[in-house]
Please model this.
Amino acid sequence: MKIFKVGDTQKVMCESCQSLETATFGLRDVPFSDGHGLVKNVLVGVCDKCDRVAVIPQQSVPAIKKQLDARKKPIESRVPAHMVDILNLASSSLGASTDFSAALIKYFIHTIYENEKTADSLLKYLDSDLAEGKAQKRISLKGRLVLDELKTIRVRAHLTSNTDVLKAVVLKINDDVLVNPKAQLINELKSVAATYA
Ligand SMILES: [Zn+2]
Model:
């Protein structure tokens, strides 16, 4: 992939001019394709003739995607307070700050998703004493991938709510990280956790 710098130029087919023009790359605010709001400060190729955006290079796609994702609502689940404590404890035992909690949940959801058979094993956690308690705190998750995976796991495990899946995942984290830690898993998690220290 060619990486463009601010000030680089390229011949492009400009849709507005309907002709081959020179575009100069620079930082611009670009409207979202749905017309609501602007993607701020991304590198785009601007037509030298009509001053409109003529090309969005591949290198700008992740930054645009990030701003798009930021507009999406997270899913929020209300859970008993001790579930949030478990996530905080697990994060800290891995050497990370509590900011790691969401990434930790995502990691587990992804692992459970990857292995179809593990969905059923979540059910036993919902029967445990730790699954009980008044829902007084909140877990919020963002990201299209994790939401799709969560939904798939919910269907596979025959659960009716995302909250039940999340509760079971938190209790699995308790089991795998705090109660019966497995060396290989812990090592893997610690190297990810280091970026949240
Ligand atoms: Zn043009």
